[in-house]
């Protein structure tokens, strides 16, 4: 069964994530990909990779990824966080990071760590 990877980026980081997905396309194509709504659509548009679309982050998409982690259904998380912009759903962002930490899920918050996480699988 293929590994399941979560992909998320805040608005100012979406381009970084879509570029990274394009660069990592062959590797990412081996996994089952899940993304928050707007991020996922941007990845599909940029790369044609198949992505399961969850709700948009502010509407619960981060919480859905957190629930997947709790259920043991996510093997890795790539979450390009914008550290310079306040988010209306900051509690959800923090909850997702907390759950990835709590459940020891490989978690990348930028390109350097995303490259490292991909080498784990
Ligand atoms: O807000 C997000 C993560 O906290 C991302 O959500 P979208 O992919 O829907 O923009």
Kindly state the percentage of residues in helix.
Answer: 40-55%
Number of domains: 1
Give average pLDDT, whole number: 97
Report low-confidence residues grouped into runs of 5 or more.
Answer: none
CATH arch. level architecture: 3-Layer(aba) Sandwich
How far do the termini sit from each other? 12 Å
CATH superfamily: Methylglyoxal synthase-like domain
Structural summary, described in words:
There is one protein chain. The chain is an alpha/beta fold and 121 residues long. α3 links the parallel β2 (32-35) and β3. The model has no long low-confidence stretch (mean pLDDT 97). The chain contains six helices and five strands. The protein has one domain (4-118): Rossmann fold, CATH 3.40.50.1380. 36% of the residues are buried. Bound molecules: 1,3-dihydroxyacetonephosphate. The site of 1,3-dihydroxyacetonephosphate has 12 residues, from α3 and α4.
Secondary structure layout:
Elements: E1 4-9, H1 14-23, H2 25-28, E2 32-35, H3 37-47, E3 51-53, H4 61-70, E4 76-80, H5 90-102, E5 107-108, H6 111-118
Parallel strand pairs: 1-2, 1-4, 2-3, 4-5
Residues 8, 10, 36-39, 56-58, 61-62, 93 line the site of 1,3-dihydroxyacetonephosphate.
Pick out its properties.
single chain, 121 residues, alpha/beta, Rossmann fold, 5-stranded parallel β-sheet, 5 strands, 17% strand, binds 1,3-dihydroxyacetonephosphate
